[in-house]
Amino acid sequence: GVELASFTAERVAAGARLRWTTTSETAVNGFQLWRAGMASGVYKAVSPVIPAAGAPNGAAYEWVDQRAASGVNYWYKLRVLPDGVFVGPIESAAAPGTGGRGRLYLPVIVR
């Protein structure tokens, strides 16, 4: 499994920059980013599988969605592989007082 410390989205000139940091990674093969036009919308994979570092103390990741159109709000989820658990959604729109950073809504996962 994975323990996620952060998951953020920021609008940049090239599109939307997604960053996430883990505090531990066990049996994680990689990550994939999914995007929708609304938080409750239909999400589609927009990134390739990003290989996990497999670091027991965690790692930092970044991917830029270059297909994110300027002026359009997007929502992103992070899929953890191989178990397919989704984290998010976060919004990539610049909102007043956020400095252009997205908001994160984390589910509580109890195993």
Protein described:
It is globular, with a radius of gyration of 13 Å. The relative contact order is 0.29. The N and C termini lie close together (10 Å). Strands 3, 4, 5, 7 and 8 form a 5-stranded antiparallel sheet that branches. It has no helices and 8 strands. Helices cover 0% and strands 48% of the residues. A hairpin with a 2-residue loop joins strand 1 and strand 2. About 8% of the residues have low confidence. It has 111 residues and is mostly beta strands.
Q: How many beta-strand elements? A: 8
The fraction of residues assigned to DSSP E strands is: over 45%
Return Rg in Å.
13 Å
| Mean of all residue-level pLDDT scores | 86
Largest sheet: 5 strands, antiparallel
Oligomer type: single chain
Q: What is the 3D form?
A: globular
Low-confidence stretches: 95-103
The residue fraction in helices comes out at under 10%
What sequence of helices (H) and strands (E) makes up the elements?
A: EEEEEEEE
Q: Total helix count?
A: 0
Distance between the termini: 10 Å
Strand-pairing-aware structural class = mainly beta
Helix and strand arrangement:
Elements (H helix, E strand, L loop, with lengths): L1 E11 L2 E11 L4 E7 L7 E2 L4 E2 L8 E6 L9 E7 L3 E7 L20
Antiparallel strand pairs: 1-2, 2-6, 3-4, 3-5, 3-7, 7-8
